[in-house]
Amino acid sequence: MDSADLAKLVAYGTGRSFDSLLIARHGKIVLDTYYAPYSAEIPHIINSSTKAVIGTLAAMAMKDGLLDSTDHPMLDFFADRSLANVDDRRKAITVQHLLDMTSGIDWREPTDGRPVTFFEMERSRDWTRFVLDRPMSNTPGDIFNYNSGNPQLLSAILTKLTGMSAEDYAKAKLFGPLGITNWKWRKDPQGISTGGNGLALLPRDMAKIGYLYLRNGQWEGKTLVPPAFVERSSRATINMNLKFEPAFRYSNYFWALPNRNVYMAVGYHCQVIMVFPALDIVAVTTTRDFYPFGVVTDYIAGAVKSDTALPPSPEGATLLASAVREVSTEKPGDVGVAPETAAAISGKVYTFPGNGLGLKSLSLTLTGSQPRIDVEFFDRDPTAPSRKVGGPIGLDGRYQKGDTTPAGVSAAKGSWSNDHTFVLNRMILGAGFSEQKYTLSFDDEKLNVRGLDWNGREVSVDGGSWRKS
Asked: Is the pLDDT of residue 412 over 60?
């Protein structure tokens, strides 16, 4: 692969908020890049690429003789439940329909819009029952409709088949053989591993899953996934009807671009595992934004020049090394001179009423040798306790890493824009979300905070009281 071409791809990732970029060919890592402040040792939430792992586990259960066929009727696994809206269409749903997003269950979760029904499921007390009780909108097998309830049902089925959670089954049958030791996986209120999202892996471990598929389900000479399951995934034929990329096809929770001979596990904000069978390539991206799939796949394929090693290219190697160094190193920035306000507000705890930012309290310590921030957020579930997170804050233009949260590692930096205004930048490294920027305006004993909520709307909230910490 041409180093100069790969350098262009590394640089492209900067404009698309990449956290990491990994490419392996012929079983060897060609490129392994981490965009600061993200780093290699932090697991990254892979969002809907979790679905591909659930599908892989279903295939392994079939190989183990626990699942007789993907044509098995779905309702057979829930005979112990009293269900609403059971009709002939619901009885016709099979495991394969769940894998192909063609179950016909009524669901609003467009790939280019707000996942309304997904949020409703997450707010319900029993996710499996919520999905099972949804009405039917189509005959199973007729129409593709993106639906994270399908893999949630499959995760519940895996629990019934194996007697353990999907996470524990993965630990024994998938993660163990692949040498994956660092992961996190959410559970629903009943303790079932989330099927549609919620798994966090290191990028290198994401690549191992891709390599398992690239080698037709084999790992170190042993067949872990039935080759027929891999074949169906790689040659997906179900039209996803996507406006932004009409060529996409789907099967077994994998997206495929047959015209580019690539298939992939895809998670929100482009947490992607790409497999290029003809080029013998696996590629992984973790990002905080979307990118055009065709552009990135063309970058990768275009860097391939030969099936064997290329002659040395010192110039190309220098370009690639420089590009990697550029994205992996944070640069100090102009943060302004600390005003007298810094000392006056340090150590105070500002509290806030309910607001669109979810901010409950905030405390800054901006003097001394160990500046830090402590923030408390209201939980989206009003019955749940608030969430506290804190740690060092960079005052030199560079992020400092703090507490580990369920979503990733908290990081913060800040600077003074004038004597009474402090600009705070926060990230949760590995969560796959954009940087949060807050403008803090101090006025005597009050604090006004301005920032964007999760829908991109500007919110302004005043701290009503404070006390010494």
From this structure: yes
